[in-house]
Amino acid sequence: MLSYKTEKNGDAHQKKLAYEQQKVADISKYEADIIYSPRYSDDEYEYRHVSLPDKLWKYLPNPPRLLTEDEWRGLGVRQSPGWEHYMVHKPEPHVLLFKREKDYQLKYPLGAPPPAPALDTWRN
């Protein structure tokens, strides 16, 4: 016989699994409807905004916050390396605002800056 706590944990696990399966299905179905703006820039950065279709809005965090790269890619957003979700426009949290260093792809043709050198912590 299962305890109430075990049954409750099992129900929560099943709900989370169903939610994740539905998310994958929805992203697969609606990712073609994601709208990518043209890029625009200033002296330091290039920018773009990405509008998620309304069927994907429910997968955004509430309250709105900045997303990590894994999170926005997990919503079906596809972009070249270097983009950072840098601002939440609260009236339209489904419009993700991105920036990256200007000329990023020319500066980093391998997709990312080289790792910083290790600091020499042993000084005599």
TrEMBL record:
It comes from the Eukaryota. It comes from Coemansia guatemalensis. GO terms for molecular function: cyclin-dependent protein serine/threonine kinase regulator activity. The gene is SUC1. One of its GO terms (biological process) is cell division. Keywords: Cell cycle, Cell division. PROSITE patterns: CKS_2. Binds to the catalytic subunit of the cyclin dependent kinases and is essential for their biological function. This is Cyclin-dependent kinases regulatory subunit. SUPFAM superfamilies: Cell cycle regulatory proteins (SSF55637). Belongs to the CKS family. The keyword Transmembrane does not apply.
